[in-house]
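Just curious. Protein, please.
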Amino acid sequence: MQDLRQLKRNSTVNYLKRYWTLYLLLALPVAFIIIFRYFPMAYILSAFKINNILHPPWELPWAKNNGFEWFIKAFNNRDFLYALRNTITLNLLDLLLGFPAPILLALLLNELTFKRFKRITQTIVYLPHFLSWIIISGLAVRLLAQHEGLVNIVLQRMGLNPIPFLNTPGTWIASYVSLGIWKEAGWNTIIYLAAITAINPELYEAAAVDGASRLRRIWHVTLPGLRPTIIVLLIMSLGRILGSEFDRPFALSNRLVTSVSNVISIFVYEYGLKGMQFSLSNAVGLFQSVIGVFFLIGANSLAKRYGERGIW
């Protein structure tokens, strides 16, 4: 028994001697995560304490209603309820319409026979990812403005009525989702194209020998090969169902569409930074994160129940 323990100890020592440089390289990112990710979590307490930024939250007394004062105030706040509704609506539309877009684009690019045209097309479609939403909002105003936008000028010259793309709630939501798809679909396509390259080419050859058409090969070979990647990315997207970007709705919004453009991130900005209600905004952010974790765990468990690997 003692010899077995000594053998394990020696193997551990030999392992560390061999790979100590890798652990040394790992030490810096681990320290970064601990210092800048875990230590700040102590300030989650401010969601349950009185609103005072001059003292650390652990030195402050608990808020009313057993510390849940700010959560109660948030759910009694009409602006928060509207922001919650808008966040869920916009994220669901992004998920339903934006999630399949890079999959379809990857399938189309994979079927192109001219490799040079394929590379050029792929480069063009993922370039918008590198543009900020401030730039995109400026382009959107120039192109989609009701009276001075290029698109509506062309429509008017064709004898059609101008479309208020950014001035009414319904058309604003359609423009918001469309611009999001245009910006990110090409970048996410890279992930699916990389997954397609891992599919065994012999499967395509066997399907072709059996007389399968191109569409049949996509349905029975390509899509099943992409399924693990699709499941992982879908789980991660569901985990962000209550998450909300700030720059995208803030840059595209205007006074005519605030009823549908004000999301949780804008609510936190208005009440936290402008209104100095840091405990309220922290409570809203904590609620947002907890719900996201529940969605992530639930989606991962559901995927495993149906035989998929999930993300852990």
In short: The radius of gyration is 26 Å.
